[in-house]
Amino acid sequence: MDLPAPNLAGPAETAPYVVYRPVRQTMPVVFASPHSGQAYPASLVAEARLAPLALRRSEDSFVDELFAAAPAHGAPLLAANFPRVWCDVNREPWELDPAMFDGPLPPWVNTSSPRVGAGLGTIARIVATGETVYRRRLSFAEAEARIRACWEPYHAALAELIAETRARFGFCLLIDCHSMPAHPAQAANPPDMVLGDAHGTACAPRATRLVEEVLLGLRFRVRRNDPYAGGYVTRHYGRPREATHALQIEIARALYMDEVRIERSAGLVPLVRNLNTLIGHLAETDWTFLRA
């Protein structure tokens, strides 16, 4: 399936997300790519203190392409069009750093989470490399506008896909798709994939194990919950007692892209082929054990 090309400095009015639907949903799985959006509002590019390429450091670039075969196997794929640096949907809706704003924030805003402290709240203060994004302080109205226009529609669409899947099958498995940068601390033995199930609380262990076994069979180095146990999406939607399970998958960018140039590498094609095999296994699995 063809997916949108990069749209650096794209229009602010770009639809916040796209849903790639199968002709008929035949498996109780929903795939989501919250951080692969590349439609950068022109205002962000013009006002940021960073060059356009540096703004893209926080992207999970091309992850929507990696899972593009999901609809052909009978599962929907939700992909954000807006970039993570503009609005991060893998955060609570109101995780905001007060130091970024030109006035006091409402008292109900979460200003003290670890993500906010790291500069990576719903509206990020820095990109993944630690560089500050903005030349000036923002107004709360600007943050609110982004959350209303991006965060809320994305999560409404995701919740709807999960509800549709549960109505059809009686249960749902959400696969939240991400990519991870190379980390110096893991240089000696870097993982290819990290599966995050919030340490067994967001997804049935049997489901996590099934995905893990397929990936190991494809000769990937797989870890669980280290260093990524799952973000807001995994923890919020993963409710096994309600027959909704969420599993985050982090894929090493070195497998498929040039992290400096943010370009696809020769490894993308074989990785897509292997992920198609994974999706095919999921399509053939009897998931009735996910019932509450």
Q: What does this protein look like?
A:
β8 and β9 form a beta hairpin. The chain is globular. The model is unreliable at 1-12 (pLDDT under 50). Helix content is 29%, strand content 14%. The protein has 292 residues and is of the alpha/beta class. The strands form two sheets. The protein has a seven-stranded mixed β-sheet, with helices on both faces. It has a two-stranded antiparallel sheet with strand order 8-9.
Note the gap between the termini.
34 Å
Strand content: 5-15%
- How many DSSP-defined strands? 9
Q: Which spans have pLDDT < 50 for at least 5 consecutive residues?
A: 1-12
Radius of gyration: 18 Å
Shape: globular
Residues in helices, as a percent range: 25-40%
Question: Which secondary-structure class do the elements indicate?
Answer: alpha/beta
Biggest beta sheet summary: 7 strands, mixed
Biggest sheet: strand arrangement:
1-3-2-4-7-5-6
The succession of helices and strands, N to C, reads EEHHHEHHEEHEHEEEH
Mean pLDDT: 94
> How many alpha or pi helices?
8
